[in-house]
Amino acid sequence: MSVQPTLFDEETTPGRIDDYLGVPGLILYRSLLDHQEQVATLTAIDRQPWRDDLKRRVQHYGYRYDYRARTVDHSMRIGELPPFAVTVAQKLFDLGLVTELPDQLIVNEYLPGQGITAHIDCVPCFKDRIVTVSLGSVYEMDFIHSQTGECRSTPLELGSALIMTGPARYEWMHQIKGRKSDGGTPRGRRVSLTFRKVILTGDEQ
Question: What is the DSSP letter of 20?
Answer without folding.
Answer: G
